[in-house]
Amino acid sequence: MTQTPTPRMLMLATAGALLFAYAPSFVSHDLWHVDELRYVEVAREMGTYGNLIVPHLNGEVYAEKPPLLFWLVIAIERVTGDYLVAGRVLMLLAVTATSAGIAALGSLLFQNRRVGALAAILYLTCPLVLDDGQRVLIDTLLVPCVTLSVWTLLRAAGSEAASRARWIGAAALAMTAASMTKGPVGPVVSIVGALVVGLAWRGRRGVSIIAITLSTAIALVTTVGWVLLASSDAGDAFRDRMLFAQTAGRVVHASAHVEPWYFYLTETPLHLLPWALILPAAVSYSVGTRRGSSTAGPDEATHAVHGLLAWAATGLVLFSLVSSKRPGYVVPLFPPLALAAAWAIARAETLEVSAHVRRWVGWPLLATTWCLIAIGILLAIVSLASGLDHGLNRVFEFDRLAGWSDDARIVLAALPGWTPIVGFAGGIGVVALAIRARNHRNAAQFVGAGASCGLALALTAAIAYATILPALNPLRATRPFAEAVMATVPPGEELVLVGSALDGRINLYTGVEHYRTVSEQDLPRAATESAAPLWAILKRHSDPLGKQRFDGFEIIQTLEMDRHRLVLLRSLEPGGEQHTSAEPFHEKPA
Hints:
Elements lengths: L6 H16 L2 H4 L5 H16 L6 E2 L2 E2 L6 H13 L2 H28 L2 H12 L2 H6 L5 H21 L2 H22 L2 H18 L6 H26 L1 H10 L2 H5 L10 H9 L7 H10 L11 H22 L12 H14 L7 H42 L9 H9 L4 H24 L3 H31 L2 H10 L6 E4 L6 H6 L6 E2 L4 H7 L5 E7 L11 E8 L3 E8 L12 E2 L5
Parallel strand pairs: 3-4, 3-5, 6-8
Antiparallel strand pairs: 1-2, 5-7, 6-7
Helix pairs in contact: 1-6, 1-21, 3-4, 4-5, 5-6, 5-8, 5-17, 6-17, 6-21, 8-9, 8-10, 9-10, 9-11, 10-16, 11-12, 15-16, 15-17, 15-18, 16-17, 18-20, 18-21, 19-21, 20-21
């Protein structure tokens, strides 16, 4: 017979999800995403070259993002001694703080610690959070700032006068952190959340205008003060870009990531799976229920769910009005959706919900458990077959990779030696957790079913991070290419970057503060003006390399990446022969 999980058990499950899903990223792969490479390099240049006020990238002023993420990476690097590790530690701290904020918000709104802890598990195991939580990204840091801002503002509204000042101070700190992470986006989402949730939850008693006004004012004064201080060193162009081009300019006319207005309506549910399947139950329960939880007062729990859903809906509308759109931009809206889904799961356990309505939660959990059982069995079979195949290959010495593409051969050859053991044991663990979730679900213990499904999802992610991602690293990491460039380019000969898309990617691994950047049109002239051979790195789409010609240059090395390649060129001596192809460079698997 299954045991109903207590709040302590759910908190342990949350810690387990964090450990499973996020710890392997420290050893599984290098930084891949172009944004995280850029952000870590900005932090490295600020910390290494001493200018902690003005962000720099490739030795030049970087007027794209506020500095909080860079400052935190620098502070953690002073302990770890490595900027890449510091970035990963910061992201682990960010998702941990978000989990704590979600749990605290759920306990406050529903007077039920089980709902808050379950919501933290649901948030941690959303596909987009599992992906972005491994990367050093601005939005991952913004989420805890927004979540804690809303929680502290709601606490300030419900506190006595003696303790209200402390909660206002905490709200101002969280709001300032949100503003110094991503500009006005953080305070706007926080204010919308505090107003909508507070009014729906307890009416006028749930909102403190003084707390919202003071915390917003402190956040804006701090952020504008930093901009003005930095612009006194970097110039008025820095001020104008930070205050106008990066705020109103991106709302009206974005230069990148332009998507149609309905982008988030189609993308967000996919990134919330499988928990998006629970949200119709939250809507149904909250609309059709007239009585709230007896511990939360008349209708307060239901009203709180109305506010959470309204917060997410309002945020989606606001983000849809912005011309620049990316899936990660709406991650600050995942906590209210996770809380609404967790409340629906917990509500389905009560006698106040009919068996017919309970199916809104029951069938998504059942479908999730069967999918996880299938995934676990597949992982175990594939891992076992991989181990047997490797053993047969060693005995009979046949080429088990014959007929595969070059990239597939690199990945399969680079699979760690522990892949069969980890994959088989992990697959069995996923099946066991999924069966436990199914048993909880059959016993109408839906909270236990949701927590077990979340742990199974986190374990599945951990298996991928421990096996597949290290094998993909040779195809995605810039480090081996940058190190090979340093070993190839002779001392005293200039290396230039073609375009600005490579800023930070090469600097981070070579340790060079500044590379001259030239346009592709000006590259031949730069070569003729150089007394010594000129070396250049440029980024190309993955078109056939034989169709590409670089007048006056020969191709020395290429790195094939996800959808593009990096190309190392060297200028030819007068009358030298031009080459238009080179062997693709990959880090050799150990």
